[in-house]
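Following up on my earlier message about S-adenosylmethionine. Here are the inputs again, as you asked, copied directly from the submission form:
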Amino acid sequence: MSLRDRWVQERKNERYYKLAKKEGYRSRASYKLLQIDERFNIFKEGDFVADLGAFPGGWLQVAKEKVGETGKVIGLDLRRIKPMEGVETIVGDITEDSTMLELLSLVGGKVDVVISDMAPNIAGHYSTDHARSVHLALYAVNVCDRILRKGGRLVMKVFMGDMFGTVLKEVEDRFSTVRVHTPAATRDTSSEVYVICKGFYANKDVELVEPKPETEEREFSVKGNFI
Ligand SMILES: C[S@@+](CC[C@H](N)C(=O)[O-])C[C@H]1O[C@@H](n2cnc3c(N)ncnc32)[C@H](O)[C@@H]1O
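Thanks, got it. Here's what our run produced:
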């Protein structure tokens, strides 16, 4: 990256960082979701939303604003989320059965929207980070199979790479429309993209590619019923 490009990038990051401080958002990531919603109309008043990888809560704030008093928002993360009015949270690892069960029990039925900004700890090794991100994205799809209502929507982050097609196939099997988008608030240096899916075919008989442990970067086997 040239010095000028770096300067432009830093100004952009600083802009969203300052804006988040000024407008009371917990993270600059809020602007990514606001921009996605503006373009793709994700939220409706009264929606029930599940947010995966929700710490510190920037997306939760946006979701809560959008669904209003009549809506409901649940956030889940490895890290404890500071309490937020009108939002329930779970601390746990989505790849663990106990966390998935806690989520199922708290939701107690179906949600209208699943959003996932989950990201692995960055190792700095491109294919490892990509494989870990794909692993988390497949868990987000698994959450949809369990709690998303028919016609529901999914927004999830994935780091681009050679296994992106695996994720795309899983969502294309389940949703009537799928778009891949990078909001303006994403850093230019980031490999992240957001997959925006609408029109969930609930109970469609599709088999999810099972996410393997993070260390196994490339081998995915097919199995239908992991939790
Ligand atoms: C980019 S941050 C999310 C920022 C958030 N959307 C916001 O607006 O404040 C990604 C989050 O994913 C969480 N995460 C990563 N792996 C996870 C897992 N296995 N289960 C639950 N959360 C996970 C991380 O703890 C981290 O807080």
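One observation from looking it over: The two ends are 43 Å apart (CA to CA). Hope that helps, and feel free to reply on this thread.
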